Amino acid sequence: QVVLVESGGGLAQPGGSLRLSCAASGFTFNTWAMSWARQAPGKGLEWVAGIYSDGSGTFYEDSVKDRFTISRDNAKNTLYLQMNSLKPEDTAVYYCNARHSVYEYWGQGTQVTVSS
Questions:
Q1: Beta bridge partners of 113
Q2: First CA to last CA across the chain, in angstroms?
Q3: Nearest to 68 by CA among 53, 50, 44
Q4: pLDDT tens across 24-73, in order?
Q5: Do 50 and 34 meet the contact criterion of CB atoms below 8 Å apart?
Q6: 99, 35 in Cβ contact below 8 A?
Q7: In which band, very low, low, confident or very high, does the pLDDT at 17 lie, cut at 50, 70 and 90?
Q8: Cα–Cα distance between 30 and 103 in angstroms, integer?
Q9: Closest Cα partner for 6 from 113, 95, 81?
Q10: CA atoms of 102 and 1, how far apart (whole Å)
Q11: Alpha helices in 1-116 (DSSP H)
Q12: Contacts of 45 (CB under 8 A, 6+ apart)
């Protein structure tokens, strides 16, 4: 059974930082590409960042480039998203995604709120 559990969300001030984690189980983590997506209130799902299965390549949506860093620890079966210089428009539910071939799984999400 594939399980993805996000954590680390919460309230941050503009300009602040948060680090999200996604603990994975039930599949061979180091063979799956991983990504983060988010959904702001009243908006659709937006892809944020992705990383290859071995961590050799990372990709970012333009609005988070140079502020967010995606990483993974394959020994711990965990995906991370370091978010710096947070802005109110980063407020959203953040979801962890695992993808391999035609298979795809999602976590339950963690809320990030950026407000003063």
A1: 11
A2: 40
A3: 50
A4: 999 999 999 999 999 999 999 999 999 999 999 999 999 999 999 999 99
A5: yes
A6: yes
A7: very high
A8: 15
A9: 95
A10: 17
A11: none
A12: 37, 38, 39, 95
Give me the amino acid identity at 77. Answer: N
The encoded tokens of residue 57 equal: 């390549």
Q: Long-range CB contacts (< 8 A, 24+ apart) of 9-13? A: 9/94, 9/110, 9/111, 9/112, 10/111, 10/112, 10/113, 11/113, 11/114, 11/115, 12/86, 12/112, 12/113, 12/114, 13/86, 13/114, 13/115, 13/116
Percent of the chain with pLDDT over 90: 100
Hey, which bits of 3-109 come out as E strands? 3-7, 10-12, 18-25, 33-39, 45-51, 58-60, 68-73, 78-83, 92-100, 103-106
Q: How many residues does the chain have?
A: 116
**Cβ-based neighbour number of residue 17 at 10 Å:** 12
Burial of 69 (0-12, 13-18, 19+ CB in 10 A): middle
